[in-house]
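Sample 3 of the quickstart, ligand iron/sulfur cluster:
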Amino acid sequence: MGKPKIATVWLEGCSGCHMSFLDLDEALVDILSKIELCDTPITDFKDFNFPDVDVGIIEGSIANEEELKIARKLRAHCKVLVAWGDCAVFGGINTLRNTVPKEAILRRGFIETESTVGGVIPVDPELPLLLEKAVPVNYHVAVDAYVPGCPPSPEAIAYNLTEILEGRIPVLPSDMMHYD
Ligand code: SF4
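Result:
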């Protein structure tokens, strides 16, 4: 049997969860020797020429239509889907905008604030449309395991990956669980 294939995607959030992953340092080399990494946030996932993988890892919440498409696509192509970080687990900091109507956000961003688009809300079909609310990943697709934290600790990420590589659906021990 070949190495398990893992794909990661990065939706609405920052780079903090990935930085925490990289903070595994030498342990990362060991993990990477045991897996085949099929996609990362810096490759162009938008083409959707996406292979079937064993594990999909999502960071970030779902806040626009493109992110929703990506989450659904990854879910359809992986056996186990893991949400890393508070944004993916419960929406995190992105949900701060949910108290304001979407139209008011767009008006503030493009009309009431000096911008490079001349005071109009852009309607370019290439631009992803904002969803009414930023939501956690499991609002739209089934998630199998969670690693909360903003960002999750490298130890929690390592535990999660090790369990998956040993064929178990990880349940994070409570002493590794933290919500920021
Ligand atoms: Fe960034 Fe925190 Fe969201 Fe991770 S959970 S993407 S570190 S804001």
